[in-house]
Design a protein that fits this description.
This protein is α/β, with parallel strands linked by helices. It is built from 6 helices and 7 strands, in the order E-H-H-E-E-H-E-H-E-H-E-H-E. Helix 3 runs parallel beside helix 4. The longest helix is centred in the C-terminal third of the chain and has 21 residues, at 175-195. The radius of gyration is 16 Å and the shape is globular.
């Protein structure tokens, strides 16, 4: 096999529906920038992490194609005045992106590490049928870990449990809560970048007090 640096793909799927407008989406933008800054301080992350962001409201968008951490530059993410929450469409788009971007091991080349997935929503999928249809495809893509964040009191936690047993709860949608979540995401990615190849699945750091694992 040729000696190439193996990438650690990290996919972040973000709810940008109308209910996220105002302080929540502002807090998400601040949290993302803090996350990028923290990741760039880790040499292993700088070498291996590639980030992708998919947003979803009335449609799903590949907001940031899979990009080396060093090259990530984000405009402010916006949320519409109102609208649906098409998480199912976002998962379908995610499957397309993973199939297109994640390199598989061949006899001549080492493939990428198993990707990490973080999903955040403050509601429930408007396209519940398509959401449930997409879940088997997500699980067949062999993510090293799938983390779902149920943000705020209207997030349907039981629906997220259909996707992953790693569902974390943010009770409030303020800047402090989102900041804590994205700092934890950056710490999780950093650990992933430092331990890939050692463990079969990603090892997560303890979440901050404002983030509770749904049990």
């Amino acid at each position: 096999m040729t000696a190439t640096i193996r990438r650690l793909p990290v996919y972040i799927v973000l709810d940008t529906s109308g209910s996220m407008r105002g302080e929540p989406i502002h807090s998400v933008n601040v949290g993302l920038q803090a996350m990028f800054s923290a990741l760039r301080q880790d040499p292993y992350a700088l070498e291996s992490v590639f980030l992708s962001i998919i947003t979803f409201d009335v449609q799903a968008r590949e907001y940031l194609p899979l990009t080396p951490l060093t090259d990530v530059k984000l405009d402010t993410i916006q949320a519409p005045d109102s609208g649906a929450t098409f998480l199912g469409a976002a998962l379908e788009l995610l499957i397309e992106c993973v199939d297109r971007d994640v390199k598989k091991t061949t006899p001549d080349t080492r493939g990428d590490w198993r990707p990490l997935l973080f999903v955040m929503t403050d509601g429930s999928p408007s396209d519940l049928h398509f959401y449930r249809q997409a879940i088997p495809g997500i699980k067949q893509r062999h993510f090293a870990t799938i983390i779902a964040c149920a943000a705020g009191p209207k997030a349907k936690r039981d629906v997220l449990l259909e996707l992953t047993d790693q569902v974390y709860i943010l009770e409030t949608l303020d800047a402090a809560s989102f900041s804590g979540f994205f700092k934890w995401v950056s710490a999780s990615v950093t650990i992933g970048a430092n331990t890939v190849g050692i463990f079969d699945s990603a090892t997560l750091p303890p979440p901050p007090p404002e983030i509770q694992l749904l049990s």
